[in-house]
Amino acid sequence: FPHKPLSGRHVLVTAGPTHEPIDPVRFIANHSSGKQGYAIAAACAQLGAQVTLVSGPTSLPCPDGVTRVDVTTAVEMLAACEAALPADCAICAAAVGDWRVADTASQKRKKEGGAPPKLTLVENPDILATLSQPGALRPSLVIGFAAETETLEAHAIAKKRRKGCDWMLANDVGTGTNVFGGDQNRVLFLDGDTIEPWSAMAKTDIARSLAARIAARFSSSP
Ligand code: C5P
After folding, report:
1. In ligand 1, which atom is closest to the CA atom of 14?
2. For the whole model, what pTM was predicted?
3. When you count CB atoms within 10 A of the terminal residue's CB, does the N or C end of the chain come out lower?
4. Residue 87 and residue 53 in contact, taking contact as beta carbons nearer than 8 Å
Protein backbone atom coordinates (compact mmCIF):
# COMPACT_ATOMS: atom_id res chain seq x y z
CA PHE A 1 0.00 0.00 0.00
CA PRO A 2 2.02 2.95 -1.20
CA HIS A 3 -0.07 5.45 0.78
CA LYS A 4 0.48 3.50 4.04
CA PRO A 5 4.21 2.85 3.77
CA LEU A 6 4.68 2.59 7.53
CA SER A 7 2.01 -0.05 8.12
CA GLY A 8 3.39 -2.86 10.26
CA ARG A 9 5.98 -0.53 11.82
CA HIS A 10 5.93 0.56 15.43
CA VAL A 11 7.08 4.13 15.95
CA LEU A 12 7.82 5.51 19.42
CA VAL A 13 7.68 9.29 19.85
CA THR A 14 8.52 11.36 22.95
CA ALA A 15 7.02 14.83 23.18
CA GLY A 16 6.45 17.77 25.47
CA PRO A 17 8.27 18.98 28.55
CA THR A 18 8.86 17.11 31.76
CA HIS A 19 7.86 18.40 35.17
CA GLU A 20 10.38 17.68 37.89
CA PRO A 21 8.81 18.12 41.32
CA ILE A 22 10.31 20.29 44.04
CA ASP A 23 7.50 19.65 46.50
CA PRO A 24 3.81 18.75 46.09
CA VAL A 25 2.94 22.15 44.58
CA ARG A 26 6.07 23.22 42.67
CA PHE A 27 8.09 21.85 39.82
CA ILE A 28 10.91 22.64 37.39
CA ALA A 29 9.75 22.66 33.76
CA ASN A 30 10.51 24.25 30.36
CA HIS A 31 8.71 25.99 27.51
CA SER A 32 8.17 22.95 25.28
CA SER A 33 4.60 22.88 23.91
CA GLY A 34 4.78 19.35 22.50
CA LYS A 35 3.55 20.57 19.09
CA GLN A 36 6.47 19.19 17.05
CA GLY A 37 6.38 15.75 18.66
CA TYR A 38 2.59 15.49 18.40
CA ALA A 39 2.76 16.48 14.74
CA ILE A 40 5.36 13.75 14.12
CA ALA A 41 3.21 11.16 15.89
CA ALA A 42 0.22 12.21 13.77
CA ALA A 43 2.21 12.14 10.52
CA CYS A 44 3.60 8.65 11.21
CA ALA A 45 0.12 7.37 12.08
CA GLN A 46 -1.21 8.84 8.83
CA LEU A 47 1.39 6.76 6.98
CA GLY A 48 0.06 3.65 8.67
CA ALA A 49 2.46 3.22 11.61
CA GLN A 50 1.39 1.97 14.99
CA VAL A 51 2.45 4.96 17.09
CA THR A 52 3.15 5.16 20.82
CA LEU A 53 3.38 8.76 21.95
CA VAL A 54 5.04 9.13 25.36
CA SER A 55 4.03 12.61 26.38
CA GLY A 56 4.95 14.95 29.17
CA PRO A 57 2.32 17.42 30.40
CA THR A 58 0.81 19.33 27.45
CA SER A 59 -2.61 20.72 26.61
CA LEU A 60 -2.71 19.05 23.19
CA PRO A 61 -5.29 16.48 22.12
CA CYS A 62 -4.03 13.00 21.27
CA PRO A 63 -3.74 12.69 17.47
CA ASP A 64 -6.05 10.23 15.69
CA GLY A 65 -4.81 6.67 15.62
CA VAL A 66 -2.06 7.31 18.18
CA THR A 67 -1.67 5.56 21.55
CA ARG A 68 -0.63 8.11 24.14
CA VAL A 69 1.13 7.29 27.39
CA ASP A 70 1.09 10.25 29.78
CA VAL A 71 4.07 10.84 32.03
CA THR A 72 5.28 13.67 34.22
CA THR A 73 8.98 13.26 34.94
CA ALA A 74 12.04 12.21 32.93
CA VAL A 75 12.40 9.04 34.97
CA GLU A 76 8.79 8.12 34.15
CA MET A 77 9.34 9.01 30.48
CA LEU A 78 12.30 6.64 30.20
CA ALA A 79 10.38 3.84 31.91
CA ALA A 80 7.40 4.35 29.57
CA CYS A 81 9.69 4.30 26.51
CA GLU A 82 11.42 1.12 27.63
CA ALA A 83 8.03 -0.48 28.31
CA ALA A 84 6.91 0.44 24.77
CA LEU A 85 9.81 -1.39 23.09
CA PRO A 86 10.33 -3.07 20.70
CA ALA A 87 9.94 -0.32 18.15
CA ASP A 88 11.24 0.04 14.61
CA CYS A 89 11.85 3.73 15.02
CA ALA A 90 12.17 6.09 18.00
CA ILE A 91 11.88 9.85 17.66
CA CYS A 92 12.85 11.83 20.74
CA ALA A 93 11.19 15.22 20.42
CA ALA A 94 10.57 15.75 24.14
CA ALA A 95 12.35 18.54 25.99
CA VAL A 96 13.42 16.37 28.87
CA GLY A 97 14.49 18.16 32.02
CA ASP A 98 18.22 17.71 32.45
CA TRP A 99 18.00 17.63 36.23
CA ARG A 100 15.57 16.60 38.93
CA VAL A 101 15.48 17.66 42.56
CA ALA A 102 17.36 15.15 44.68
CA ASP A 103 15.39 15.61 47.87
CA THR A 104 11.80 16.37 46.87
CA ALA A 105 9.82 17.50 49.90
CA SER A 106 6.72 15.54 50.84
CA GLN A 107 5.06 18.70 52.18
CA LYS A 108 4.99 22.20 50.71
CA ARG A 109 8.21 24.04 51.51
CA LYS A 110 7.58 27.06 53.73
CA LYS A 111 8.84 30.57 53.21
CA GLU A 112 9.01 31.22 56.94
CA GLY A 113 12.15 30.25 58.70
CA GLY A 114 15.04 32.21 57.34
CA ALA A 115 17.16 31.52 54.29
CA PRO A 116 15.62 30.38 51.00
CA PRO A 117 15.94 26.62 50.54
CA LYS A 118 18.80 25.26 48.47
CA LEU A 119 17.82 22.74 45.83
CA THR A 120 20.21 19.90 45.17
CA LEU A 121 19.83 18.67 41.61
CA VAL A 122 20.78 15.31 40.17
CA GLU A 123 21.11 14.46 36.51
CA ASN A 124 18.18 12.81 34.75
CA PRO A 125 18.57 9.82 32.46
CA ASP A 126 19.13 10.69 28.81
CA ILE A 127 16.32 8.92 26.99
CA LEU A 128 17.69 9.47 23.48
CA ALA A 129 21.17 8.20 24.47
CA THR A 130 19.66 5.22 26.27
CA LEU A 131 17.46 4.24 23.31
CA SER A 132 20.47 4.67 20.99
CA GLN A 133 22.63 2.21 22.89
CA PRO A 134 23.41 -0.95 20.95
CA GLY A 135 21.38 -3.95 21.97
CA ALA A 136 18.65 -6.34 20.91
CA LEU A 137 15.92 -3.81 21.66
CA ARG A 138 17.54 -0.83 19.94
CA PRO A 139 15.13 0.56 17.36
CA SER A 140 16.81 0.32 13.97
CA LEU A 141 16.27 4.05 13.44
CA VAL A 142 16.71 6.47 16.35
CA ILE A 143 16.12 10.17 15.73
CA GLY A 144 16.89 13.10 18.02
CA PHE A 145 16.39 16.82 18.11
CA ALA A 146 18.97 19.41 19.00
CA ALA A 147 17.63 22.74 20.20
CA GLU A 148 20.48 25.21 20.11
CA THR A 149 20.86 28.93 20.45
CA GLU A 150 24.22 29.31 18.67
CA THR A 151 26.57 27.54 16.22
CA LEU A 152 23.77 25.21 15.26
CA GLU A 153 25.62 22.99 12.84
CA ALA A 154 28.70 22.23 14.94
CA HIS A 155 26.65 21.61 18.04
CA ALA A 156 24.28 19.33 16.16
CA ILE A 157 27.09 17.21 14.69
CA ALA A 158 28.70 16.83 18.11
CA LYS A 159 25.38 16.04 19.76
CA LYS A 160 24.45 13.39 17.23
CA ARG A 161 27.77 11.64 17.83
CA ARG A 162 27.50 11.94 21.60
CA LYS A 163 23.97 10.57 21.76
CA GLY A 164 24.59 7.76 19.29
CA CYS A 165 21.41 8.39 17.31
CA ASP A 166 21.07 7.86 13.56
CA TRP A 167 19.44 11.11 12.46
CA MET A 168 19.14 14.48 14.08
CA LEU A 169 17.02 17.55 13.43
CA ALA A 170 18.65 20.67 14.75
CA ASN A 171 16.63 23.79 15.36
CA ASP A 172 17.53 27.27 16.44
CA VAL A 173 15.51 28.17 19.52
CA GLY A 174 17.31 31.44 20.23
CA THR A 175 15.47 34.52 21.40
CA GLY A 176 13.14 35.86 18.76
CA THR A 177 12.80 32.59 16.82
CA ASN A 178 9.53 31.70 18.59
CA VAL A 179 10.11 28.00 17.99
CA PHE A 180 9.03 27.04 21.50
CA GLY A 181 5.26 27.27 21.44
CA GLY A 182 5.10 28.57 17.88
CA ASP A 183 3.77 26.75 14.83
CA GLN A 184 6.77 27.33 12.58
CA ASN A 185 10.14 25.65 12.73
CA ARG A 186 13.33 25.64 10.71
CA VAL A 187 15.71 22.74 10.98
CA LEU A 188 18.97 21.31 9.78
CA PHE A 189 18.51 17.64 8.96
CA LEU A 190 21.52 15.39 9.65
CA ASP A 191 21.60 11.77 8.60
CA GLY A 192 24.67 9.56 8.45
CA ASP A 193 26.79 11.74 6.27
CA THR A 194 24.92 14.76 4.99
CA ILE A 195 23.54 17.95 6.46
CA GLU A 196 20.51 19.45 4.74
CA PRO A 197 19.08 22.81 5.68
CA TRP A 198 15.29 22.52 5.37
CA SER A 199 13.48 25.74 4.66
CA ALA A 200 11.30 27.33 7.34
CA MET A 201 7.96 25.61 7.43
CA ALA A 202 5.09 24.68 9.69
CA LYS A 203 5.84 22.07 12.34
CA THR A 204 3.19 19.89 10.69
CA ASP A 205 5.13 20.07 7.40
CA ILE A 206 8.40 19.18 9.12
CA ALA A 207 6.56 16.23 10.64
CA ARG A 208 5.26 15.13 7.22
CA SER A 209 8.71 15.47 5.64
CA LEU A 210 10.28 13.48 8.44
CA ALA A 211 7.62 10.75 8.27
CA ALA A 212 8.20 10.48 4.51
CA ARG A 213 11.96 10.11 5.12
CA ILE A 214 11.34 7.41 7.67
CA ALA A 215 9.04 5.58 5.26
CA ALA A 216 11.67 5.80 2.51
CA ARG A 217 14.33 4.47 4.87
CA PHE A 218 12.19 1.46 5.79
CA SER A 219 11.12 0.73 2.26
CA SER A 220 14.73 0.60 1.09
CA SER A 221 15.86 -1.74 3.91
CA PRO A 222 13.03 -3.79 5.38
O1 C5P B 1 21.10 17.17 25.24
P2 C5P B 1 19.91 17.82 24.63
O3 C5P B 1 18.78 17.93 25.59
O4 C5P B 1 20.17 19.08 23.91
O5 C5P B 1 19.48 16.78 23.49
C6 C5P B 1 18.32 16.93 22.80
C7 C5P B 1 17.81 15.58 22.34
O8 C5P B 1 17.97 14.60 23.36
C9 C5P B 1 16.33 15.61 22.06
O10 C5P B 1 16.06 14.66 21.06
C11 C5P B 1 15.74 15.19 23.38
O12 C5P B 1 14.45 14.64 23.23
C13 C5P B 1 16.73 14.16 23.85
N14 C5P B 1 16.88 14.04 25.31
C15 C5P B 1 16.39 12.92 25.96
N16 C5P B 1 16.58 12.78 27.31
C17 C5P B 1 17.22 13.74 28.01
C18 C5P B 1 17.70 14.89 27.36
C19 C5P B 1 17.50 15.01 26.01
O20 C5P B 1 15.81 12.05 25.31
N21 C5P B 1 17.38 13.58 29.33
Report:
1. 12
2. 0.94
3. C
4. no
